[in-house]
Amino acid sequence: MTIQRTIDLSQGDNYFRPEVPIFVNRAVESFYKIEHRHDFIEISYVAEGSGTHYIGDQTLQVHQGDIFLIPVGVSHVFRPATTSISRPLIVYNCVMAQESIRLLLLSFPGGVALATLLDEPDWRQYRDAFGEFRRLFLKLYDIYTTRRPGWNTGLHLAVIELLLFLHSYQDGQSATTQQAGLSNMEAALHFIHNRFHSPLTLIEAAELSGLGERQFHRKFKSRTGMTFIDYVQSVRIDEACRLLRSTDRKVADIASSVGYQDITFFNKLFRKKTGISPREYRKELLL
Description:
It is built from 12 helices and 10 strands. By secondary structure, it is α+β, with helices and mostly antiparallel strands. Helix 3 (132-146) packs antiparallel against helix 4, helix 6 packs across helix 7 (202-209) and helix 7 packs across helix 8 (213-224). The model is unreliable at 171-182 (pLDDT under 50). The strands form 3 sheets. A 5-stranded antiparallel sheet has the order 2-9-4-7-10. It has a 3-stranded antiparallel sheet with strand order 6-5-8, with no helix packed on it. It has 2 domains: 8-174, Jelly Rolls; 182-286, Homeodomain-like (Arc Repressor Mutant, subunit A, Orthogonal Bundle), CATH 1.10.10.
């Protein structure tokens, strides 16, 4: 006997505003969510944890860094690997109305090529090779939730950037294949953006890229315009700014989360990079 699955229909009208055909959320997945299909396009990014993705007629193991482009009408649901609250499966979702985004893309030079992504009948899976998608989904979520002046324009531009990334990636690549295809600098950038909250050294990055320290330092500065230390500090302060904007966490907690246990050093570095203190930065956002 064939068991019939319950599959809900999610409709864009429940998510979109008339002037904003885009919705972004951060979901902590559970075993209680019902499998669903939708009348919009969804791009999902596995930000933390691991679990299972039931999509179409396939069952996939997923981990941090997996991205899915899910067309209209394709059913899916994420399930965490465990019920432990200390190991959640967290997925960011960017939902968009197909025709509205098509019109947006067609208004941009080269947008016709990106618009082909909207017509894909089958779902696609990608891997975040060196942190680009993570940074972009955090940006999308920040824009959507804080809704500062001009947020609608910023949200549309970020969606175009997301589709551009997807268009530039070749689907079907495994994480190993993508890593093998990275240049030495891309491997180093991947290392920094995924480990910025931990102690990082130039020696580790140079070894990962297969270069000597002096050669790595020279090439890294040529690529980024900054020394290794300056770049790591900039990545950390950028993340601290995001946390100051989007959370009410204490400054000391934010400093620790981006890799600085010395709050005095963090405050001095933050002022050096931004011109103001962390508290002043947060205060300005409230004005």
